[in-house]
Amino acid sequence: MNSTSKWVLWTFACLFFLSACKSQKPSASAPPTNKSTGPISGTPKTTETLPTKTPVRPPVALQPLAYRLPDIPREFRGVWIATVANIDWPISGTDPWEKQKRDYLALLDYYKDLNFNAVIVQIRTAGDAFYPSNYAPWSKYLTGTQGVAPQTQENPLTWMIKEAHDRGLEFHAWLNPYRATMDLKTEELSKSHDFYRHRDWMLKYGTKWYYDPGLPEVKNHLLAIIKEVVSNYDIDAIHFDDYFYPYREPKQEFPDKASYNKYKKPGQSLEDWRRQNVNELIFALNQTIKSTKPWVQFGISPFGVWRNQDKDPKGSPTRAGQTNYDDLFADVLLWMKNQWIDYLIPQLYWSMEHPLASHRKLADWWANNSYGIPIYLGNGPYKVREDSDEAWKNPGEINTQVNYGRTLTQIHGNSFFSAKSIYSKNRDVAQLLKNEVYDRPTLPPSFAPKAPAVIEIPVVFDVKSNSEKTQIQLEKPLDPAIRYAMVQGGNELDTLHEAIIHTAWVGGSRVRYLEVPSLNTDYLAIRWIDHYGRIVQTQVFQTPKNTRP
């Protein structure tokens, strides 16, 4: 063989050898052998442990699905928790604070389970306070002795509000403006009570002392009290009940002639002057509340009859012994006409067909005289099985009243007096209410702000769950206009709206994440709700599987 032939054979052999070596390595572009058509999971089998490293990637916001949840109906479902004379809570002012806390939480949990959405809690009963105040002593109904602080480092009112909000319940702070004492035992009052600090403000009438509504100093004092509460606490509303000028005592005249003679306008009658005093207070309170926190509502629960028809053709077809306009000097219709209040809860504590004051006829009358202000009907379950009216022997009377109110377009809910009436007793009435009327949770009505506001929609970056909680991480701090979020988790989109609602209350704070009980679910729904109760945005997400326990 010549040298040229040897060179060709040697070159061919080398190429064959290299080709054979290359064929032993897997092709980088060839798909791995696997019968499954889905993605491959796990790591390649190997005899050695290879180090793994998760690549660092920038956070990417979760994208909401193009899926709309059904609307949640709106209806006010409130209950009055009366603290005066320890009617509802605390059970006793001498109970330890820890027991008082347990009793309060039991009330909240009970009404939350009944699908209520608001509590109206009395925080000032008669010149006193259930919170540390610069203007009033501690209430004896909280601590046993007026002026003595509770044995705790907690602020009771801050705690009470938080616990209500954690359960998705609005907190309406209920104060009594003009009642200074509940009896004439002034020796039991704290020396810091206004009876001692401003004796010239006090008028004795019947078995109580009252602030003189005709004094400008009294009005300014009440405005300062309300401003203190609105400024310092995350309340949803300031609430007054029916006590303005006191109900008339037989053969007694309210002793305000001196202030009437001093401040009346020329030719002004005593009755018109009294109504003017109350009107000026309501107007100024509205201004004070809205200039401090525009989203805090101002609601009033007056006596159920404005005027009888025999006194005024615009009045209701009733024969009430006393009325708002003529006896309590509360011109309720004027307050609604001038938009000085955000809601009204007339106390219609009569049965449907009561001959002197029919619940049915009064519901009609208030619905027709609302001036666009939302009306909630005040119901009196405290009369169930306790009243001479035979209608109250029927445990279904309350349901009948609620259902009737729902037929009237201007009626937007109900409130019940008082908490113990279907809690300590009459639980069958409460169960009927839940089974037949309040079978599903609702949101309370929303309110429109006076000035339009642009609210930044929250962006969710991630959702992480463990066995105890689910944490929803946000791109940036929440817009302070966001009040709370309603969170639901489920594995099917079609039934997601029926899942348990978890409320994450932020109260306008600029948080970066929310926490709710653990939701190890395929889907997550979040409704973002602002200070005015409006749903700013509803978002539905498919939760990443790698974020679940």
From TrEMBL:
Residues 26-40 have a biased composition (Polar residues). Transmembrane segments: none annotated. This is Glycosyl hydrolase-like 10 domain-containing protein. The keyword Signal applies. Gene3D superfamilies: Glycosidases. Residues 1-22 form the signal peptide. Residues 43-55 have a biased composition (Low complexity). Residues 26-56 are annotated as: Disordered. PROSITE patterns: PROKAR_LIPOPROTEIN. Residues 75-387 form the Glycosyl hydrolase-like domain. SUPFAM superfamilies: (Trans)glycosidases. The keyword rRNA processing does not apply. Keywords: Signal. It comes from the Bacteria. It comes from Algoriphagus taiwanensis.
